[in-house]
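Good morning C.,

I know you're traveling, so I'll keep this short. The sequence:
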Amino acid sequence: MKLATAALAALFAVTPALAEQLPPKRIFDSPDISGPRARGVKLSPDGKSVTYIKTRADDLTVTDLWVADVAGGEPRLLLDGKTLAPARRELSEAEKARRERAGVATRGVVDYAWDSQAKVILAPVEGDIFVYDVAAGKARQVTRTAGDEIDAKVSPKGGFVSYVRDDNLYITPTAGGAERALTEGGTELKSWGTAEFIAQEEMDRDTGYWWSPDDKAVAIAFVDQTGVDVVDRPEVGATGAKVIAQRYPRPGRPNARVELYVQPLDGPRVKVDLGADADIYLARVAWAKDAATLYVQRQSRDQRRLDLLAVDPATGKGHVILTETSPHWVDLTDDFKPLKDGTFLWSSERSGWRHLYLYGRDGKLIRQVTSGDWPVGKIEGLDEARQTVIFAAHKDSPGERRIYSVSYAKPGQPKALTPAGGWWTVTVADKGGAFAGTYEDPKTPAQTALYRADGTRVRWIEENPLKPGHPFWPYVDRLRQPTFGTIKAADGSDLWWSMRTPPGFDASKKYPVIVQVYGGPSGPRVASNWHSPEDQILLDAGYILFRLDNRGVGFRSTAFKTAIDRKLGQLEVDDQIVGANYLKTLPYVDPERLGVTGWSYGGYMTLLMLTAPDSPFKAGVSGAPVTDWKLYDTHYTERFMGTPADNADGYGASEIVSRLPRLKDGSLLLIHGMADDNVTFDHSTRVLFALQAQGKPFETMVYPGLRHRGGWTPANRMHRAMATLDFFDRKLKGD
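The tokens, ready to paste straight into the viewer:
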């Protein structure tokens, strides 16, 4: 596709006319235009330091490991990602898939872990494993093999390093010594210690093995994919193409079969009894603090039942101690927290909002810990000495996230540990309740500091102040505070929206609007956070940007979230049309120049909104869209839609091709990565074929070698952004 002259020029240079704008090329250059950000922040178990991953100032594609002492002083580089991984290495398909699921787009130090004794830090780097000895102050390479070691961990007491290679689980003494295989005979189709595709992609479970806290045993998953359908997926790269025979479970079709075993380091392997029904999901696995009990969360195939099993690791025998059920679906969380005295914390939506509960070791309810017409986001940590739980919640509005603490031992109201007005993410220390917190809002890029248990700031880790010297400072006057508001859905629900207007906004003029949509079950997109600087490209081009969280979006009431049950793509579109009709009432909005864009579920929503009866949208850019839920995966799709056999009407109403005759000529730009293994490329090819058969003009942009999230370099991210700008300029402005 040919880019417009102005957009093309902006790719390479800053002309005098654009000097006051944020040049598009600068957004994708080093150093990060949003300033230094601490990612993967962790407090050392001894409470003496904070570690984090940071993008290099000279290369946005490489990340390093840094440390800051709690006592003070400047943060310092601990592991240099470019030195440890001086050349780009071709990773295995298993490691590529793990990084795709995790959204990792850099190389170097992309993950790390402390042992519980604060003696060592483990860091997997480009397929090999390094261990940093804290006392010695130096790193040592543990593995040096042709294959990739994936899902590397350091055992809780620091005695061993563990990893999966070639579908088997291995351990090596941290102090040095011979490698030992805990499993043998693993293959790509029958593997040990790895999480299956569905677990990684949809269940937020990225591991297939779990160390006991005493370093004496490992719970290991065995995954059999032989019954899963093979989807021949073309992977088109820059210099050629190949066909990947991907095991991809689609709705109503067989899933991988997963078994669980306990492997003592000094004894025979024991199989865990997961029940008579093999067609279940192994949702979560956790050990009791004393290692005497293994807890397993077992989810039914229809996801309307979640059982918590207490298992004897010596025999593999277990029993159900708690069950959650729903006529819609039961979401998986990481809120199960076993306590030293044998009780445990749990979250549930049974009241109509997600809240926290305390249970005895037998699964009997002791008390409800939080309550009210607001949802808990997640448990962030515990302070068992003070018998408090630290959690995130959306009490003030769905788009604000604050951190609270509350006693789980006795009734009481939550105490806010962080101020209101923005978005907080935290990592809580294993003991004492101290936390590393990151704050951001629309005018504040991410700032990370260490805080005491009462919320008092101890020291900055990455202050990242937006002041002279900050990469964004020359363009700070172009930032405008979003406007937030609500409108009513057809059922009376409040739909939250946000709007950003372009620099130099004049309410007496009329502007084109681009609706940025996701729309699917997820966290809120209408949030008080630091927005992607890529948005400034559209704002500087004179567009109003609008977002609306429709029914189905999370961190609201259970009723709001489950309104879309068995009918994806229906109420969400109705709500977005309500938003478009609201926009048309505003005197500064040109009602004839509304555009829409989104990625993944947002790409799907873009197609739905463009093909709605009497669609108010003139143009849309759809990225990596789902176009038929029968082509997507089991766990996600069946959660909301059931199977094609039991919900034929819902599947029929939600697919895209039958709606394409309503698409306005020339109104679509369709974008997709040609190696996408999540929303596979055939979702888009069926739309391309149908539009060509109907003789409808449209535009497309495909990216060789790129997956759904992974592999997007600064160069092709910039190309995608400028292609989007060019399309909207031509369709909404006539440029």
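Safe travels,
E.
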